[in-house]
Amino acid sequence: MKIEHVDVPLDNNSYTINIGDDIIDSKYLFPLLKKGDRVVLVTNNVVSDMWKNTIVHYLLQYRIIIDEFILPDGEKYKNLHSVESLLSFLLKKKHDRNSILISLGGGVIGDLTGFVASVYQRGIRFLQIPTTLLAQVDASVGGKTGVNHVLGKNMIGSFWQPIGVIIDTIFLSTLSTRQLVSGFAEVIKYAISFDYEFFVWLEKNLVKLSVDSKKMLYCIKKCCQLKSKIVNLDEREKKSRMLLNFGHTYGHAIETHFRYSTWSHGDAIAVGMIIASKTAEIIGLLKSTDTKRILKLIYMAGLPIMPPKNMYAQEYLKYMERDKKNISGGITLILPTSIGKVEIFNNIKKDVIVSSIQSFL
Ligand code: GLY
After folding, report:
1. Beta-carbon count within 10 A of 280 CB
2. Is 63 assigned a catalytic role?
3. Cβ–Cβ < 8 Å for 334, 242
4. Ligand 1 within 6 A of 41 CB?
5. Is 278 a catalytic residue?
């Protein structure tokens, strides 16, 4: 069994991402947990039905004491109400500062568990076991934790690094096609943002990924390496980490507008990347041939390429004006200047944003 490692070197709290196929029961994976530790396994009902017993069985072998906290599945449960329920659970079960939370699930479970870990008794340890492609290539790495507010996505949160990340591609075998495809949006984001060669590799290999585990492992490792580099440079998003948000400003507006229900994160980000590429083209930053290539790869992945018909440009602006990247009242966007390179642009004119959106309607 081959386990690949990607380090996330930070000033404090460095950790390792372990990546492999069917590695979850490996005794090498839990050096961070020890006999007698108390853990809370946080998951959702869908993941729980499929994987909880495997994980619990393994933890029990190591004499680890486990409580389980199971939420309903869905982005709409990534809110303060769920945070409060988990906090109450920890208090009722008398968990202390030595307890460890394990998140077993996608980005919703990971972000929420991390946030609760960051505030429970002023901070306890947590371990990420991401089960969706989207969480494996992006959300589980880098310590961004938090929940949504009806007025904005991820508006309540903290930076709190996990003690480790365990990425097992075995989890991907039980994802629906839609969930897998959703993860491709973040994969494509990494290629457009930072790595032209990777983009070309995806143009050749994307459709084979779901049936070729070696290629899938390469792809996940590549995204984790790219993310680790950025997080190492700028853990708290003072500047360069903002680059990880390509497509997210438009995408978050869509997700928030539809109340985190009809548009998945991946689908919204896919469309967000297409509109952002159009914005870059309108400003004269990106060649129209590059916009077309980006659109084609997103289409090939099975992701949507058209913005929602029933959402008007003014409605995007309402959410975009509250984005965390904005400074001095202007809208900040992450835009590609070529395939493989994105930059931060402040004070993007509203009429450019409106034209970008309207060019698709
Ligand atoms: N998902 C973007 C970040 O972690 O900064």
Report:
1. 27
2. no
3. yes
4. no
5. no
Those residues with Cβ within 8 angstroms of residue 197's Cβ, 6 or more apart along the chain or in another chain: 340
Instruction: Point out the catalytic residue in the list 227, 255, 278, 281.
Output: 227
The type of residue at 217 is: L
pTM for the model: 0.95
Report which of 58, 87, 289 is spatially closest to residue 166, judged by C-alpha positions: 58
Distances (CA, A) of 309 to 96, 246, 274, 305, 313: 49, 22, 15, 12, 10
Cβ atoms of 271 and 251 within 8 Å: the answer is yes
* Tokens, residue 296: 């084609």
Q: What is the DSSP letter of 187?
A: H
pLDDT in the model for residue 28: 65
* Catalytic annotation present for 57: no
Please pick, among 44, 95, 186, 255, the residue that the annotation labels catalytic: 186
138 or 32, which is more confident: 138
Confidence band (pLDDT; 50, 70, 90) for 24? confident
Q: Is 204 a catalytic residue?
A: no
Domains of the chain: 3-174 (3.40.50.1970), 183-358 (1.20.1090.10)
Q: Is 244 in the pocket of ligand 1 (CB under 6 A)?
A: yes
Q: What is the mean pLDDT of residues 226-232?
A: 98
